[in-house]
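Exam revision sheet. Question 4 asks you to relate a sequence to its structure. Input first:
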Amino acid sequence: MKLGRNFRTLGVVIMGLMISGAVNIAQAQGVVPGTGQKLTQVGDDFEDTKWAYYPNFPKSSSNIDKRVRAPEGRSSNGRTYGSDYRGTPDIVRRVPTPAGGLEGSKGALLLQSMETGIPGRPSYKMQQDDFMFPIGSRLGYQLHPSWNPSAVVRVYLPEWDKWDQKTGSSFGFRISCRTTIPDKDAKKRRFSLFRKRRNPMKVEPYWPGFFIQFNSKTDPKFDRDFAALIIRCDNNGQDVVAKQILNPGWWTLGMSVSGDGKVHYYAKEGIEDLTAADHIMSSWPYGFKAEKMSSFFFNIVSRDDNKHWSTPWIIDDAAAFIKR
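Answer key, structure tokens:
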């Protein structure tokens, strides 16, 4: 009997370790993006046939010349807008959903740019526009990591001959996070009643996410066209090459933030919902722990030479979720 009790005790311990291990693995991978409660006030499925976008050119280029040219572009339903930092894509248009898209989807969104720098002043360098999906301004509050917020999108990669034939990043899908860090540049120091020095703090925004890089066969380094999925970034701020993309078509991308401020990256080929098996990596980007998530957005990259269009990117069912 004593031996039996020991075995029963051992069994309970082993079961406890198994459950603990499963919980730890789940925490390490975060919540699967796209699970939980969908925030219906945020994102868009582009099914409204009257959907329209008003670009309000000229666009902003605050990232280059500190010029904000208000008002920024905005969709007719108020769910999306162009950035006052980099500017809105040149083409934002509802289009028929490409073949193989989500069942029942009739509309998707085309994003494409040529002039991605200062309006009328080509830089002849790779520049980018931003296309924003606000969360904080739509809900009236930002999302706390304890709510396990996530963002998901379906992205259509066109045939290789339709890409801008230049090796380099072409598209980004990112989330807006913020954290609090010591303000090393502050000129004034604060003191408590006991005259102990306190380092002033500041809110630091950062934007983890995915980039899709084209590797063109016009480049001597490559003997065929293909793409790479790149994650920004690891704990040290380094970009990580996550997957090779050998065939065009639909991909599903998603990110979630867990209660410990970690960002979790998921991706799969096709349009199916993400699962735990689609987890790629997790990190505290730049060593930061997220305290809030306020939006998700897309980058459209071009040569900014007034000659070459960016790759025509199509997105569908851009959505945000929480799981409390």
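Marking note for examiners. The radius of gyration is 22 Å.
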